Every structure is written in structure tokens, then in C-alpha cells.
Amino acid sequence: MSEKLGSINKPEAGDIMQNKKVYIVTLVQSQPGAPEGFEEKYNKYWEAIENHLSQIETKAGIVNKIFCEGIVGKGDDAKLMLEQSNPEAYKVVRRRISSGASFEEFEDKEIFGQLIDWSRCLQVGLISQQVQEEIHKNYTLITEKRNNFIMSQLEKNILESDSVLLVVGNTAMNLPENVEKFIISPPELDELQRWVNETNEAIRRQMEQQQQQQPEPTQRDDGEDTGSSSSKLWTPG
């Protein structure tokens, strides 16, 4: 069952509190060095998440367990990692921990490390087709292994009457059976995504204008092209 905040039907008295519940929040990362305007949108998004999450907690149950994608370990180790990597998301999580929620393990350190490394390999321009296929095969295998680990963690840790905060990049991810799913998606998320698209479009137009104004690239004696092919497009992580 999946609901979006703002369209949640009023549950029967005493019903929803006893169910397994997951409040899903889209993971938006901080972006040091992002174009001007991103930080404001980023802060507003997490402020909106705090407000919407507080509202749903009064109706369906106070968060007592937390899982966060990309965070290795649990407890204090997980808190520290999130604080360093995503300060605004950390504020939301910290409030729940202060009220008694536990920060649970979502990622296996070894599996997550392999996933990152194979992902980086995929981004490298390779000559050998055989090597490309080997990298893709290993990336697919480790992705499946990670998904199985995550599902196992959720199945063992989401118990009856639990209210779980799940911070992930894909809000459509699979969940264990008999879990009520609430997607918290405030308007600020759409505003942020629209801003990113518009900013990248503006950068793209600027690049095109600069290319039109530049002289044709010349060929040096050593055969090297003196033209620049580096991309200036900004993409949030």
C-alpha cells in the first residue's frame, strides 16, 4: 500500500498505529560548489520534510527506526557519517534519535564499497569490449547482492507497529510484504528538480554560445586537437 502525504485517508481508530509503516523520503544530498541558488532550495526541501514528517507522525505513529541509503554502519557511526555528508538530512534524523529512534544498518560496508568501485569502472572509457562486459557483469552481480542485503535488513528490522523513516534515492523501491508505505513528497522537491533542470539548460545554452563565438579548433604539429571538449554541465549527486 502506498500513500502520499496530503492524500492520506483517515484510518480507522487504532488500526494504523498497529501496522508496520514506512515513511519514505527522497534523499537529496548537499552539493558543495553547486551553482548559486542550490543551497537555498536544498535547505527549504529538508525544512519541508521536517514539517511534513512531523504531521504524519501525529497521525500514523512516531518514528522509532531509521534507515538511510549510502550510510554505512548503525548507531553513532551512522549518525556521524550522515552529519558529515548531509547536514540538513542529519537534522531531521537527529530529532528522531533524540526522541528515542534507533539508526539501523542499511548498507553493508564491503558490498557498498564494491558497488562504488564497479560504478566508477563503468564510467571509464575502455577499449576492450571483453573488459567492458566483465565490469558490467560484476556491477550487476554486486547490485543484486546489495538489493538482497537491504531487503533482508528491512525484513528483519521492521516489526509490528514500527514506524520507520527510510531516506533513499528511489522512493519506488521494493519493501517487505504487509508494510504500509507513505511517500513524503513536498512541493519543494519539485521546485528543486525544476531549478536543477533550468540551471543545466542555462549552462548548456551558455556553452553553445561560447562555442559559436570561438574560432574553429586547429591541428597542432603533433596531431593534438587544440579545441576543448570538457563538459561544464553541473549535475547534482
Keywords:
single chain, alpha/beta, 6 helices
Short recap of the structure:
The chain has 237 residues and is α/β, with parallel strands linked by helices. 49% of the residues lie in helices and 12% in strands.
Could you say how many structural domains there are in total?
Answer: 1
DSSP strand tally = 6
Terminal CA distance reads 29 Å
Query: Could you estimate the helical fraction of the residues in percent?
Result: 40-55%
Largest sheet: 6 strands, parallel
Count helical runs.
6
Order of helices and strands: EEHEHHEHHEEH
Overall body shape: globular
Looking across the biggest beta sheet, what order are the strands in? 1-6-2-5-3-4
What is the structural class? alpha/beta
Mean pLDDT, rounded to whole units?
Answer: 87
Parts with pLDDT < 50 across at least 5 consecutive residues: 6-11, 226-235
- Sheet-strand content, in percent, reads 5-15%
Radius of gyration, CA atoms, in whole angstroms: 22 Å
Notes on the protein architecture:
This protein has one domain. The relative contact order is 0.20. With about 240 residues, the protein is an alpha/beta fold. The protein has helices spanning about 40-60, 75-85, 85-100, 110-120, 130-155, 185-215, and strands spanning about 1-5, 20-25, 65-70, 100-105, 165-170, 180-185. It has a six-stranded parallel sheet. The longest helix has 29 residues, at about 130-155. It is built from six helices and six strands, in the order E-E-H-E-H-H-E-H-H-E-E-H. Helix 1 packs antiparallel against helix 6, helix 2 (about 75-85) packs antiparallel against helix 3 and helix 4 runs antiparallel to helix 5.
